[in-house]
Amino acid sequence: MNVGRNREGPECIEFLLLDLFSMMSVTSAIEPLRAANRLLGSEAYSWRFSSEDGLSARASNGISVNVNERFGTSKTPDYLFVCAGMTFVAKDQTRLNVTLNRWAREGCHMGALSMGTVFLARAGLLSDARCTLHWEGQPAFREEFPFIELSNQLYVIDRNRYTCAGGTSSLDMILHIITEAHGAVLARSIANQFQVERIRTGNVEQRSGSLVRLDTLPLQLAQAVGLMMRNFEKPLSTGSVARTFGLSVRNLERLFHRHTGCPPARYYKILRLEHARNLLLHTNLANIDIAIATGFCSSSYFSASYTEHFGHTPSQERQ
């Protein structure tokens, strides 16, 4: 149970639904709470929905959800999860920040699902805590918050800050919370209810949209790809990558052809273009700034490369 709780009854969990929130992230968090109550035979958890204006909130799949109240109008809950998905824009960022900070001071466990981490960061609530969010939002997050420690893990619990990548990782994080309060046997029983073979721990890495999952590659090739992903702004030569891991250029090329189907330089370029796409979708950076951040020497070369790979221009991507 929460440290310092001063009221009896079920733990109260509020889900703040921001415009275009991820429905799957939210339902994956709520369902294990419902199952916990059912299996315990008592109401250990209660939950409520809020929105910034108290009106129904629209999920990214088009479904509107009726909420219980306007955010910040009820008593501080035990947990708050900011739920976001397709937008990083709040209707009233100032009011949101004020309420988030007030609840944090009152001992609320502050959390976020999927892209909700951005709003905790804007409120200054992650300045001394590790965090995570969905991999699509990570490039934009790093641009806006370069000094916050961002992890690529499925979920991160740092003291009373709870962040996750959304999707089914919400279920894993909530099961961790239930385990701490009621034990692993209950958590496993809940997982069985949903045909979940294993409960993932927070140190499991997210699977990004990259061409090939790194954990399926031979060690040296995975290390080479990791090095490429850390050097987008100033791309390394194939020779430099090969020498870093004690390989000849020919051996590195053979590894790439065998396991990715393309040469290292081509694979590297696609990684950079994928990173550029995330920046286009989730930041307000100018195209030229994105071109520079992803290692393209001019906006025209960036645009031509982007169009060749995705079938439309960077400007059309944003439309």
UniProtKB/TrEMBL annotation:
SMART domains tied to this protein: HTH_ARAC
Domain HTH araC/xylS-type: 222-319
Pfam (any one): DJ-1_PfpI
Keyword Signal part of the UniProt annotation: no
InterPro entries linked to this entry: Class_I_gatase-like, DJ-1/PfpI, Homeodomain-like_sf, HTH_AraC, INH-QAR
UniProtKB keywords: Transcription, Transcription regulation
CDD domains, A to Z: GATase1_AraC_ArgR_like
Statement: the UniProt record of this protein carries the keyword Transcription regulation: yes
PANTHER family from the UniProt entry: ARAC-FAMILY TRANSCRIPTIONAL REGULATOR (PTHR43130), HTH-TYPE TRANSCRIPTIONAL REGULATOR RV1931C (PTHR43130:SF3)
Protein name as annotated: Transcriptional regulator GlxA family with amidase domain
